[in-house]
Specification:
Length: 288
């Protein structure tokens, strides 16, 4: 039997935020066994804790959607770091995407993104994207759409109001057409600026088995690329945004995004949040 723990991440309130399963003692598990367990939990992500390759690091981890392994994800990083920290002020996780240092202070964990956003060349036209989201053209902000990769990839679209954000419903076949136009990017991240340093967002990734995600740390990190491309960041300095996600699906989440820029370039991205433990138990080891 394997020990597991369930946390709600990017919240300090049980039964809100984004649920996460943490499975300990995963050294002997095959990729197929991990995928079976992730599919059994059927949460947006499950993280498996293994012995680190470098004993100076806290743990080696692998992260799975219900359908596939992914190289990096934000809410598993935050939840796992807080679970493993004890009294430590720093946790270093070996993820497929690279080393992810996480600082711990005041019950909050903050990770530094392992990769900076890289703009991908393709983006859908307005009509197709509006149709994919079940919106009218006037619901889309005039700012250009952005397709950014940094481990995972996301298609970013700014909408004009909280009302526009709330009425998004994924529509086919326009959603599949949008994905194909955007180089098979599976996830759409819609957001609205609610103040000079505040954002509300929704993230949809049906191909990964996630109809909607209550909180997406990796998408929050790559949002820095979209904000930078659209002139929302200074040429140099540090800018912090406070984000809400999951409101429309009844699982409100709070995320903090901090972006360092120097000479009109992004130099570092950090995402912070809290987590609360809601369950623990044991699960059988699947057949190999």
């Amino acid at each position: 039997m394997l020990d597991f723990h369930i946390y709600d991440v990017f919240t300090d309130t049980p039964f809100t935020g984004n649920p996460l399963a943490i499975v300990e003692g995963a050294d002997g598990l095959s990729t197929a066994q991990m995928q079976t367990i992730a599919r059994q939990f059927n949460l947006s992500e499950t993280i498996f804790v293994q012995t680190p390759d470098d004993p100076a690091h806290t743990a080696k981890v692998r992260i799975f959607f219900p359908t596939a392994e992914i190289p990096f994800a934000g809410h598993p990083t935050i939840g796992c770091a807080l679970h493993m920290a004890g009294n430590a002020s720093e946790v270093i996780l070996e993820e497929v995407a690279g080393l992810v240092p996480v600082t711990i202070a005041g019950g909050m964990a903050e990770f530094t993104a392992p990769k900076l956003p890289r703009a991908l060349p393709s983006a859908p036209d307005r009509a197709t994207l509006a149709a994919a989201l079940g919106l009218a053209d006037e619901d889309l902000a005039p700012t250009p759409f952005g397709n950014f990769e940094g481990g995972p990839s996301f298609l970013y679209v700014e909408v004009t109001s909280l009302e526009s954000l709330a009425k998004i419903t994924i529509q086919e076949p326009a959603f599949t057409q949008t994905r194909q136009t955007a180089g098979d990017t599976g996830a759409i991240y819609a957001y609205v600026l609610t103040g000079p340093d505040s954002i509300q967002a929704r993230m949809f990734d049906p191909p990964a088995g996630i109809a909607e995600d209550p909180a997406t740390g990796s998408a929050t990190a790559l949002l820095a690329g979209q904000l930078h491309a659209n002139g929302a960041l200074p040429a140099s300095g540090t800018t912090t945004f406070h984000l809400k996600q999951g409101v429309e699906m009844g699982r409100p989440s709070d995320l903090r995004l901090t972006v360092d820029t120097d000479g009109a370039q992004i130099t570092a991205i950090r995402v912070a949040g809290q987590a609360v433990k809601i369950a623990q138990g044991q699960i059988r080891v699947p057949p190999s």
